[in-house]
Design goal:
3 domains, Immunoglobulin-like, disordered N terminus, 6-stranded mixed β-sheet, mainly beta
């Protein structure tokens, strides 16, 4: 399982993601428009729907009939309820981002706008702006007139009074610190007046007093790894796509992506992934695709030479020549089995390419009659990194795209010895015979 977070390895991909179903066209705010809402939000049972009831001179036939019928239906209820619509406002929240596809460590600016589209001033308006924890680091904000009490640390935004048909904004600047799909959410949590089509702080994504916006930074995938995208709760007809092809269909092999028994998407290959579903008849698609790219690989290597002067540093090739045929093994901490084995070439070089970013160390095997010189003396670029007794180097941490070409080994001959035995050759035959004992005190000069 890839340890990079996708909203911490699990993302409700359709959270707040549909716009057209949620952004009802409200009666009376636009010419020729009508809202036919359901349940606690309006006049009929069933899901909220958006209908565009064009003026009769612009439409014909059945469309005109349906529009006129719905318009009449809405007008009746509007007149019946007019006397009860005192001290009611209509607050709408809108969130946008300056760049929906930022680079890691890039800077984005969120703009959150709350609009009072009614003819009544809204007082003591409270909003909560929630940044994606772990994905951005907020650095500053700028609030418009009428938004003096936004708090960056908590995301709490208090507006004492928002005049009729006016807006207030706050712009938040943040640095992207993690890969994946991440959402900012903004919602009205309280106000003195009732709202004509929303209930503050109820977390309903079908209401216009709550909005979100996302960004997507490509995830990195390496061989043998995968991502799990959790199935969106409460939705029906969930379908996942790789590009334009349905996951689970004939054009997306299970080796590339699949859907498990719990409806979760399992991503096993690079590509662009998206989702579609419905909630109470409202069709939803994600606002940010999941982009999965090949992870950049790393490499490690370099050189084995004969350290004739035993100073632990590489000299000229003429005086301290390269050594070919030396066995070099690559390991990861905690694993006693070598990941790869190679030998130095005629120039004393070795190389381990295409490594997944992580921790590695090398073990040099000295040829017979040799060991390694003192390690880590002087410049790291030209020193020996092999332990003189074991041939093992320190552990190196490689990042994607990094090539470490400073892991070297300097060979020196093992110390030699000479000696043995002086005896009294009583029979003068030049051989040590039984009974011919050793002679002490003889001076030996080398």
């Amino acid at each position: 399982m890839n340890e990079q977070p996708l909203l911490k390895n699990s993302i409700n991909l359709i959270r707040l993601l549909w716009q057209q179903c949620r952004r009802w066209v409200r009666f009376g705010t636009e010419a020729g428009s009508v809202r036919w809402a359901g349940g606690p939000y309006g006049f009929a049972d069933g899901p909220p729907l958006s209908l565009s009831a064009h003026k009769p001179e612009h439409v014909y036939g059945q469309r005109t009939f349906i529009s006129s019928l719905v318009m009449s239906f809405a007008l009746v209820f509007l007149s019946l309820g007019a006397s009860a619509q005192t001290a009611i406002t209509d607050l709408m929240v809108d969130a946008v981002i300056s760049n929906a596809n930022p680079a890691p460590n890039g800077v984005v600016t969120y703009t959150v706008t709350v609009t009072n589209s009614s003819t009544t001033a809204a007082t003591n308006v409270r909003l909560k702006v929630t940044l994606p924890a772990g994905y951005v680091s907020a650095t500053s904000y700028v609030a418009s007139t009428g938004a003096p009490s936004y708090t960056l640390a908590t995301g709490n935004w208090a507006i004492a009074s928002l005049s009729a048909n006016s807006s207030s904004t706050v712009q938040i600047t943040a640095t992207v610190i993690e890969r994946g799909v991440a959402f900012l959410t903004a919602e009205v949590t309280a106000a003195d007046q009732s709202d004509s089509d929303s209930v503050p702080n109820n977390g309903s994504y079908l209401e216009d007093d709550l909005d979100n916006v996302c960004f997507s930074v490509p995830l990195l995938l390496y061989a043998g790894e995968e991502y799990t995208v959790s199935a969106p709760a409460g939705f029906s007809g969930v379908q996942y796509f790789k590009g334009a092809n349905l996951v689970g269909g004939p054009n997306v092999p299970a080796t590339e992506a699949s859907v498990d028994a719990n409806g979760n998407l399992i991503i096993k290959s690079t590509g662009t992934y998206s989702v579609a579903a419905s909630l109470s008849g409202c069709q939803a698609t994600n606002c940010c695709n999941i982009q999965v790219d090949p992870g950049p690989l790393a490499s490690l290597g370099d050189y084995v030479w004969l350290d004739n002067n035993r100073d632990g540093q590489q000299g000229t090739a003429a005086l301290e020549p390269p050594v070919s045929g030396v066995t070099v093994q690559l390991f990861q901490p905690g694993n006693t089995t070598a990941l790869s084995t190679t030998v130095t070439d005629g120039s004393g070089k070795y190389f381990f390419p295409n490594l997944i970013p992580g921790e590695y160390y090398v073990v040099f095997t000295a040829p017979t009659g040799f060991t390694y010189t003192n390690a880590n003396v002087g410049s790291d670029v030209t020193d020996s990194d092999a332990n003189p007794l074991t041939g093992q180097t320190q552990t190196y941490t490689l990042s994607g795209g990094e090539s470490n070409s400073t892991v070297d080994g300097g060979l020196v001959p093992l110390p030699a010895s000479l000696g043995d035995f002086v005896w009294s050759d009583t029979n003068s035959n030049g051989q040590q015979d039984p009974g011919e004992g050793g002679v002490g005190g003889v001076i030996v000069t080398l």
